[in-house]
């Protein structure tokens, strides 16, 4: 067992940096253990084996306590190894609940009045990138958890009303809850000290039962994995549990104090679930729950105090505190170590490890933005903690899922039809740690989300950021045709092509020195770019049909579905994303060409592709009309169809939304060194512009500043910014809205001959499109706002501060593009900072905005934000892309 690493004092930051330097790969020893246990496994596509393909109904929350998962595990404040075999998490019981609290509860897509929604409060409070230090706080009611009441409240609320939350039930009134703080501190790569502290914040004493659990993921029940695994709990020499696994080897869990030791198996209770005649094991997954809560003495094994032992695959240590006085804190300690155990698990080294890791974490985070004020540092640290905590082990072998398992009934025939979910992704075979959008509402990867995650990750862990981008391009994930999988619900759907942009950002943030990474990602993205060109530009017009492209319900029609008849939707955003993609790949090729001239020709290919898109964007689409609408000074989707006589009917979809702002992102600066050093690229570009002078409108040259390549010339750029910075349209106090507030009263628009109505909705969606659980019809979204901020800084960089616009529109106040970027950035950052009343705009009307510091001190990172008030909405732990605020904050403090 490796010895402890405990650099302290001024060496604190260097201690974590040293661990990172030893951890370049995903399987490095310091990365072996981490917060990789999912916040939710039930209700996922992976666990859905139903003929209907209804993942939520196939494996509901009410099954989770008694039914073994096939592909992963879940738990509260838990950790696991990088392979997802051995898991450690916290279960609780307040003496009133009908079940153990072993996992977070939330409503399914059909139960929530705005789609799926978690109904718990917890905060990911701290962490380091090697997971040498991790903390989370879970808030547990003292009264019976109101499962039924929450379902009923959501059922009665309707789409016009807010989502009901746990606090709305009254169960947390008078602070009648326990705050359970779970801390993990590594003394070595496989030596983890665990402290669980619970504080009674209520006015009366209350019982609390803490049941830390250790268990193996069920790999044996499916007929595909014969590796042995077993837990053995013993009281022979103190209270210990040994965990032996054919892949991991041996681990030992030490228990401080004298808890009851309960052992069962991680096997389904098929008798209670499905009415089977017998269970595969006499000890089932819910055996510990039934013993503790219901007093069923025959449902699990109890280890006696006099040297007894019991074997199984799921274990709990039952610590009972009855009562806990008001204001009192109770604590338990555990230690998980590799091998046969630690000689003195709870001796001085335990407290020293916690102290040292806490100090090292403080100094590591302080060094990220040393000029930030305390509130900014608090937001920054919480954002990065949440980002690191939502790294989860993701395992899914699609061909086994499609075909079914040898020991289970044959997979339904509906799974093998050409239209079946993910049937064309048989090659996908993932068993990796992946940065998830949200540990409960999105406990699966999403391609464009992940690209945004890598940007704040570069602040703390550039190696992980690069590995994540490469992972999605590896042969076990990327389709053989070059498509990057979108997300679990439908791998074949389409997300915006932002990987090249993210790769450039990560490369530059890491000092522009890892050319090997840049070359590897570039060659893979060539395949993806070809897929886009071949699949999403049907007639070679350079106007693209991407699908919904992540902005779910932003349009009046479902853009994931084919248009009626022979109509075709030519998308402003898809076309603009491809223009930007071309420029990003051009920039990567130019960077690589500095040391390898063979990349110059590839860079030329991409600048020419960009210019073809730009020309079509302006006026040469399939109908002779482009995406640009000169009368409105804005960019719109178009629908068109070709008649038998060869004529083309076309019309714009005149809804002013984020799809018309995405063209701002398609710009790049050709630095002076490009024009002076890369003669092959420069001469080819000069030749092209001489032969086709009409393309010069998209490139502006300057003797000293190089050249500016942009989808929008200066005239169009100013007209789009005029709308974007208008407070009656896109500009809100909290960033850029996703739909113009000019549509506040609603509008009717004809699409492919049919009338549709939609309008500005600043908050949660009233539309059932995409399950009603996402809204791009008004709210502020961090990812697109962060891209707009960067685009404005690109404009400013080339124009050297001479490009000015009015902000807000009609105010008479003129700012440079860089100053506009800074102000937008400040508005986004301010979502999370206390205002003059001490309230964070993102807290809105939620309980976090109360006067109590027990609530107000906790920052939440929501999926999106109300376009008028800034209140956080949607998923509540979206420290995936919402962690972009960390990058905005550090950029402003440099």
From TrEMBL:
Pfam family of the protein (one): MGH1-like_GH
Region (Disordered): 1-26
Entries under InterPro entries matching the protein: 6-hairpin_glycosidase_sf (IPR008928), 6hp_glycosidase-like_sf (IPR012341), Glycoside_hydrolase_63 (IPR004888), MGH1-like_GH (IPR054491)
Span of domain Mannosylglycerate hydrolase MGH1-like glycoside hydrolase: 442-668, 709-879
Protein name as it appears in the record: Glucosidase
The species this protein was found in: Lentzea flava
């Amino acid at each position: 067992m490796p010895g402890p690493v405990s650099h302290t004092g001024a060496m604190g930051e260097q201690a974590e940096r040293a661990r990172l330097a030893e951890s370049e790969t995903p399987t490095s020893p310091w990365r072996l253990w981490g917060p990789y246990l999912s916040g939710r496994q039930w209700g996922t596509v992976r666990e859905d084996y139903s003929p209907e393909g209804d993942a939520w109904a196939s494996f509901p929350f009410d099954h989770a306590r008694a039914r073994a998962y096939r592909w992963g595990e879940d738990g509260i404040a838990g950790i696991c190894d990088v392979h997802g075999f051995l898991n450690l998490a916290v279960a609780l019981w307040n003496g009133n609940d009908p079940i153990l609290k072993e996992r977070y509860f939330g409503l399914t897509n059909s139960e929530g009045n705005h789609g799926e929604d978690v109904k718990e409060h917890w905060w990911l409070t701290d962490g380091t990138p090697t997971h040498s230090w991790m903390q989370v706080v879970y808030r547990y009611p003292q009264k019976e958890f109101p499962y039924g009441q929450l379902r009923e409240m959501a059922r009665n609320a309707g789409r016009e009303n807010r989502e009901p939350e746990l606090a709305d039930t009254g169960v947390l009134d008078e602070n009648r809850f326990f705050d359970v703080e779970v801390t993990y501190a590594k003394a070595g790569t496989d030596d983890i000290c665990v402290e669980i502290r619970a504080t009674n914040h209520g006015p009366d004493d209350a019982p609390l039962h803490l049941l830390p659990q250790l268990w193996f993921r069920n790999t044996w029940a499916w007929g595909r994995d014969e590796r042995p695994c077993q837990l053995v709990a013993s009281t022979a020499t103190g209270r210990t549990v040994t965990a032996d696994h054919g892949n991991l080897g041996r681990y030992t869990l030490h228990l401080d104090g004298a808890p009851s030791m309960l052992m069962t198996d991680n096997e389904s209770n098929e008798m209670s679930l499905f009415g089977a005649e017998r269970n595969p094991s006499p000890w089932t997954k819910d055996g510990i729950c039934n013993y503790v809560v219901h007093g069923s003495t025959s449902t699990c094994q109890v280890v006696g105090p006099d040297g007894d032992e019991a074997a199984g695959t799921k274990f709990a240590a039952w610590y009972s505190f009855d009562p806990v006085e008001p204001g009192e804190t109770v604590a338990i300690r555990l230690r998980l170590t590799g091998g046969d155990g630690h000689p003195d698990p709870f001796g001085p080294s335990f407290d020293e490890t916690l102290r040292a890791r806490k100090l090292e974490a403080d100094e590591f985070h302080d060094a990220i933005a040393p000029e930030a004020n305390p509130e900014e540092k608090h937001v920054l640290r919480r954002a990065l903690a949440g980002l690191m905590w939502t790294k989860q082990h993701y395992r899914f072998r699609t061909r086994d899922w499609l075909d079914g398992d040898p020991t289970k009934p044959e997979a339904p025939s509906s799974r093998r039809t050409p239209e079946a979910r993910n049937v064309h992704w048989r090659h996908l075979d993932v068993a990796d740690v992946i940065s998830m959008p949200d540990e409960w509402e999105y406990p699966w990867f999403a391609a464009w989300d992940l690209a945004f995650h890598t940007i704040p990750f570069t602040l703390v862990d550039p190696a992980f950021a690069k590995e994540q981008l490469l992972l999605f391009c590896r042969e076990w994930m990327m389709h053989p045709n070059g498509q990057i999988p979108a997300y679990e619900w439908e791998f074949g759907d389409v997300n915006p092509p932002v990987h090249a942009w993210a790769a450039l950002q990560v490369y530059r943030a890491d000092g522009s020195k890892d050319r090997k990474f840049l070359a590897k990602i570039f060659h893979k993205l060539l395949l993806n770019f070809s897929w886009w060109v071949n699949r999403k530009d049907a007639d070679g017009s350079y106007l693209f049909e991407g699908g919904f492209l992540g902005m779910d319900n932003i349009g009046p029609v479902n853009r994931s579905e084919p248009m009626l008849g022979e109509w075709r939707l030519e998308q402003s955003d898809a076309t603009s994303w491809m223009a930007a993609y071309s420029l990003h790949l051009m920039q990567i090729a130019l960077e690589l060409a500095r040391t390898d001239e063979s990349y110059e020709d590839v860079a030329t290919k991409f600048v020419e592709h960009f210019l073809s898109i730009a020309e079509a964007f302006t006026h040469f689409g399939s109908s002779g009309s482009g995406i640009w609408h000169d009368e409105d000074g804005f960019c719109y989707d178009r629908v068109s169809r070709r008649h038998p006589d060869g004529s083309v009917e076309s019309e714009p979809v005149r809804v002013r939304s984020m799809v018309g702002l995405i063209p701002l992102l398609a710009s790049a600066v050709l630095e002076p060194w490009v024009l002076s050093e890369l003669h092959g690229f420069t001469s080819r570009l000069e030749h092209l512009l001489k032969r086709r002078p009409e393309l010069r409108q998209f490139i502006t040259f300057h003797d000293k500043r190089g050249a500016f390549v942009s989808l929008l010339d200066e005239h169009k750029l100013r007209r789009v910014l005029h709308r974007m910075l208008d407070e009656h349209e896109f500009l809100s106090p909290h960033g850029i809205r996703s739909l113009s507030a000019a549509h506040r009263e609603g509008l009717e628009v004809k699409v492919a001959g049919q009338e549709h109505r939609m309008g500005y909705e600043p908050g949660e969606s009233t539309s059932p499109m995409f399950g009603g659980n996402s809204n791009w019809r008004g709210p502020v979204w961090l990812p697109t706002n962060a891209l707009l901020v960067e685009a404005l800084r690109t404009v400013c960089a080339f124009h050297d501060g001479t490009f000015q616009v009015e902000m807000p529109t009609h105010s008479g106040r003129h700012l440079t593009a860089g100053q506009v970027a800074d102000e937008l950035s400040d508005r986004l950052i301010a979502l999370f900072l206390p205002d003059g009343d001490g309230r964070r705009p993102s807290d809105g009307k939620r309980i976090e905005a109360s006067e109590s510091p027990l609530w107000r001190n906790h920052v939440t990172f929501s999926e999106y934000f109300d376009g008028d008030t800034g209140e956080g909405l949607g998923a509540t732990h979206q420290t995936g892309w919402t962690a972009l605020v960390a990058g905005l904050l550090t950029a402003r403090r440099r």
